[in-house]
Every structure is written in C-alpha cells, then in structure tokens.
Amino acid sequence: MDELKIADITLKNRLIIGTGKFSSYEYIPEIIEKTGCEMVTVAVRRAKDGIQKPLKDYIPQGTKILVNTSGARNAEEALKIAKIGRELLGSNLIKIEIIPDTKYLMPDNMEVIRACELLSKEGFKPFPYIMPDLVLAKRMVEAGAVCIMPLGSPIGTNKGLLTKYFIEMLKNEIKVPIIVDAGIGKPSHAAEAMEIGVDAVLINTAIATSKNPVKMAIAFSKAVEAGRIAFLAGIPAEKITADPSSPLDEYLTGFLRK
Amino acid sequence: MKITVNGQTKEVTTKNLKQIVELLGFDTTNYVIVLNDEIIPKSKVNEVEVKENDEIEILTIMGGG
Predict the structure, then answer these.
(1) Which of A30, A224, A237, B46 minimizes the number of CB atoms within 10 Å of its CB?
(2) Distance from first CA to last CA of chain B, Å, rounded?
(3) Does B65 map to a domain?
(4) What residues make up the domain containing A189?
(5) How much is the ipTM here?
C-alpha cells in the first residue's frame, strides 16, 4: 500500500485541499467525496455572526483538518494562532505560515525556523510553509518540522513549479515528507510535482477559483494520482540525442535499399 | 457594562462569559473565546466573569489555504 506518513497520521490520498476563496462552502463536501481527499487546510478568523453555518459543518467527519497560521508575521503570533486552532479542533498539527510581505506573500524562512522550535516545545507538529531552501529546511527539521511545504510559486499566482530544482534538492536530501504548497495553477503542474517524487501537493486557488471547482478538483485528483504512479514506475532519463522506438533490422538496412 | 467584542463596543447586562457569547448568537463548541488576549478553554467559559472594558475575541475556523 502506497501510504504517506506525516508525524502520527497516514494519508492514502496525496491531494490536500485548501478551503479558502470558495464562493460557497457548499462545494467542499462534494469535492471531498469525489476526490477522496483526506486532509484540508483552514484558517483562524473572527466569527462573522452566529447564524452562519460554521465551516466545520461542511467538512465530512474523518477528514483531517490542518489549521494554518496565516496572518502571523512572527513566531509568537504563529504560536497564538496555533493555540487557538488547537482549542478549536483538538489537533496538534499546524501549518506554519509567517508572511511579512504583502506583495508576493513570501514566507519569512528565518522566522519559520524559530516558530518550529517554539511550537514544537508546546507540543505542536509543525508543517512549515517555506521558500525552498535546503539549508534552512534542514534547520526546520532539526527544530521539529514533521514535513516541509515548499512553494512552487507565490500564493495564488497559478505560475506552477518555478522552484522545481530547489524542491528536487529538498526531496533528495530531506527525510521528512515534502508537500508542494502554493502556485500550482493547473493539473499538469500537480502531475509534474508528483513526478519528481514529492509526497503530496496542496491546492487551493486553482480549484476554488475555477468556474467549476468540483470538476477541477477531480482533474487535480487524477493528475496527482497519475504523477505519483509515474514516479513509482520510474521515469526514464532524458537524452540529448534521439533513440529510435522502432528498431532497424536487416530488411530495412539491407534488402529495402538494394 | 461596556465591553468590546470582535472590535465592536457592546453593552451587556450579565458578567457570565458563556451567557454573553450565547446571547450574541455563538455556541461555545464551534468557537474559541479569547478574553484580553488569553484563550479561555471551552470547559472554563461558564466560570469566567467579564469586567468593564474587557476585550473579547470570538474566533473560529474559516476557509484558508
């Protein structure tokens, strides 16, 4: 069985879905049902009013919910948000997102290292969202990160795997799972990520802002599965010169040319 | 008594935190209450008394990536 183990959880499905930007939460249960998605991400915010049906009611029982620390600008703020998330959901899993830059939403990798230390000491299992950097990612693992979540390109840009080579470095050198998060704009990007051997992908904008989020989620699900199977099958190396698929024989090289 | 709830000033007649939160239309299972920057565990909400000018944040999970 091809399973992904992160800290003390096991996932069979390698598509993780972010719940932001949907025009209606009504899409979420149908997407989870049709893709078999086992983990979704959520944020912590002020409650709007008591009449609105809470997001939790749209997430089927058994689905793992990963709270993010979006909005945090330093490790201390991330810890506060994480504690609120834990009180809400009773889970120690936390996606560390520390973003001081509002234009490109670049994560503060140094502060993320500090947050991994701080949150680990408080019993959390950090999932750090980072700009892929091998040296700093190793520091995060030393500080207790249970996986690494490198960005493919900035959040919401749909530009795909602009950081592919750097993600490959992480995959080759880091023992904890690698989950590509952010920037994946279409299913082929997700397949490309899975083909290089990353363990899972997290998709939000590309599904939530599609004209048909349910169909798009299904397309992503198939792409993630195809990419994973291809990786496990073993993708042949690229070559500089051609190598015929139809071999020549003596009929072609001899008889035919008489 | 004047308190602040999610950034807005409210006039309340009870001191009991759980009652205040419920009167505002929130249950205490899907929401976490932060009183003056301190998380109030669900099991304690009924025991906490609110004072004049206290700041309450009622937080929950929302869509996020």
Answers:
(1) A237
(2) 39
(3) no
(4) 4-257
(5) 0.90
